[in-house]
Each structure stands twice: as structure tokens, then as C-alpha cells.
Amino acid sequence: MGSVIDYIECPNCKSPDCYDDFYYKTGEEYVHCSDCGYTKSVTIKNREKSLAELTEDDWEVNSVENPWGCYRIKEIGNVGWTCGTLLSEKEYNEIFDKVQEHLDSVDEFSLSRYVDGKVIKTMVVSSAKIVNEIME
User: Fold this and answer.
1) Least crowded by CB within 10 Å, which of 13, 31, 35, 117?
2) Is the dihedral of CA 40, 16, 74, 115 positive or negative?
């Protein structure tokens, strides 16, 4: 399966750091903005059919167009990050509680939100210490 990853302007917050991962062999697409949490996925429901047999009903489109925010977690010793969209402050609080339970394995935990036309980034945990520092 081949894909092309590109950065596009986020349809929600207009950030240039929104990535678009397009699978050119299947036509599937995944879009995610790490500044506001906007996400969209276009995937094939029925993989039993060939691409030529697919109809409009064989595609599933999911999106979160006005999210509450986006989180990023980096565990100690890992190169990559776990990122995700937050739908509510309740979801954020649940993730924050889990991070606190495993603080000894968390290198960084940050929150990013699009509020009143501005992206606000907060470093919540850095090197296993809760800091709640707003990054400009």
C-alpha cells in the first residue's frame, strides 16, 4: 500500500501543520491537525470488493470538525508520540488522570486547543513533572 503524506492548511484552525495521509492505491485518506485536533478519515468499509466495484455506500467518512482540543504524549525512551483528538474537557481530564497514574513513564504530555481564533499550547508534563505551562 502506498501513501503520500503532505501538510495542508487545517480546515478548522488554519494551521499549516495539519497532515494529510492519502493512500493512492485505495483512495483512502487520513487528516489530522495536531494544533486543534481536527480529524477526518475516508476509509473503505468492504475490502472484499475490488476498487472498481466500490460504490458510494462502500466508503465510510468520519470527521471531528470542531474538537475541544488535541493531546500529545511521549513516553520515556520512545522516539514517537501518541496523539489524539479530544471531544470534551471530560476526555482531557480522563487522560490527565491516566498520565498522573503513570507519571514515572511519561516524558512529555501536552495539550493544544483552538480557542477564540488562536491556537493555545500547554505543556502539561515535562520530564515526569506536572508543569501546566502555556507555550507561546
Assistant:
1) 117
2) negative
Question: What is the pTM (predicted TM-score) of this model?
Answer: 0.85
Sheet of 106-115, strands arranged across: 82-86, 69-75, 106-115, 118-126, 129-135
Query: Which 8-state DSSP code applies to residue 2?
Result: -
**CA 107 – CA 52 distance, rounded (Å):** 46
Furthest CA-CA distance within the chain: 54
Q: Read off the pLDDT of residues 61-105 as tens digits, 9 standing for 90 and up.
A: 999 999 999 999 999 999 899 999 999 999 999 999 999 898 889
Each residue of 31-48: pLDDT tens digit?
999 999 999 999 999 888
Place of cell 455506500: 57
Q: How far is residue 50's CA from residue 69's CA, in Å, rounded to a whole number?
A: 37
Beta strands in the chain (DSSP E): 4-8, 18-23, 28-33, 39-44, 59-64, 69-75, 82-86, 106-115, 118-126, 129-135
